[in-house]
Amino acid sequence: MRFAHLIADGDTTTRLAVLADTSEALFLDEILDDAPRDLQDLIERGADEVSRVTAVLDRARASGVSTTPLADTRFDSGILRPPAIYAVGLNYRAHADELNIVTSSAPTVFALWPNSLAGHGGETSWSPSLTEQVDYEVELGVIIGTPARDVPVENALDHVFGYTVVNDITARDLQFSEQQWSRCKSFDGFTPTGPVVVTRDEVADPQDLRIRAIVDGEVLQDGSTSEMVRTVAQLISFLSRSATLMPGTLISTGTTSGAGYSRDPQVFLVDGSTVTVSVEGIGELTTHTRFARA
Predict the structure, then answer these.
(1) Listed residues 20, 40, 75: the one ending a domain
(2) Is residue 166 part of a domain?
(3) Do the bridges between strand 138-144 and strand 250-252 make them parallel or antiparallel, or are there none, so unpaired?
(4) Cα–Cα distance between 187 and 171 in angstroms, integer?
C-alpha cells in the first residue's frame, strides 16, 4: 500500500489516505469511524490494525467507493510525529570522496529536527543572510514498524514498516563551519519527505533502487542504493545496539555522488529553484525554494 498525508482543497486538516492509483486517493476517515489520524497512529496500533485497514480498504474498493482526485489535494510530509529522525552521512563512498571527508569505521549518524519535515510540492525558504550554499541530497527513507533493539542484520528488515523519499537539504557553509551537522540540515522545511510511504512488501530489495536528483530540469544525481557503504539492514542493526528504534522512527540513509557543493562549477539552490528527487518504485518528491523576505 501507499500511504500519504493529504490536505483537501478548502480544508486545513491533514488526513491519512491511501493512494488508489497515481491520480486518486481514498481518505481512511471516510471508510473507518475510528480511522488512525496519521501514519504514526497506524504504525503504533500495530500489525493487527494494518491488517484491519487493509481488509476495509479491499471491501471499499470492491464496492466502488468514491475517491478524491489528487489534483484536489496537497501533500503534507510523508512522515508526521516521528519519535526520532536519524540521518546517516557519508554512506555512499563516492559522496564522501567528493566532499573530501574521510569515512570512519562506524556510520556517521546525526539527528534531524522535526520542524524540518515538509511535503511534496511545497516551498522551502531560508534567509540568504544565514546561508548562501544550500544543497540537495536524494535519499532513501526507512520507517521502522516495530521496536528494534539489538537486532541482528539478518532480521533487521523485519522491523521495517515501509520506505519513502527524502531530500536532505543542507546548508553547506554551516556544515563545514560547525562540529555537528544537525543545525545545517534542520532549517524549517529542510527535510521534505514523501509524497508517499510505500509498505515494505512493495519493495523487493532496498539495495536495488535507482535514486536521482533533478535541479531546474538537469539531472545532477543518478545512482543506486546498491552503492551504500552500509546496507539498510546494517544501519538498523547498528542503530539498535545503543537505543531502541521505536515504531515510526525515520532513518535517512545517505546520498550518492553529484551533490551541488562538489560540482565544478558548484550548484546551489537559489530563489526560484525546483528540485525533484526520486527513488525507483517509491516516487518523486518535488520542492520549490525561495529566499525568505525581510
Answers:
(1) 75
(2) yes
(3) antiparallel
(4) 9
Q: What is the 3-state secondary structure (H, E, C) of 145-170?
A: CCCECCCCHHHHHHHEEEEEEEECCE
DSSP at 92: B
CA-nearest of 169, 168, 204, 174 to 280 is 204
- 192 preceded by cis ω (within 30°)? no
Specify whether 184 is located in the same domain as 222: yes
pLDDT tens per residue across span 136-184: 999 999 999 999 999 999 999 999 999 999 999 999 999 999 989 999 9
Longest dimension (CA), the chain: 59
Query: Distance of alpha carbon 185 from its chain centroid, rounded?
Result: 14
* Residue type present at position 276: T
Q: Does the pLDDT value for residue 255 go beyond 90? A: yes
Residues facing residue 163 across a β-bridge: 142, 198
Q: Does 138 lie in the same domain as 114? A: yes
Residue 39 sits at the vertex; the CA angle it makes with 285 and 90, to the nearest 5 degrees, is 50
CA gap 170, 172 in Å, rounded = 6
**pLDDT tens for each residue of 266-283:** 999 999 999 999 999 999
Instruction: Say how far apart CA 55 and CA 29 lie, in whole Å.
Output: 15
CA distance 41 to 262: 40
276, 186 contact by CB (below 8 A): no
CA distance 53 to 260: 42
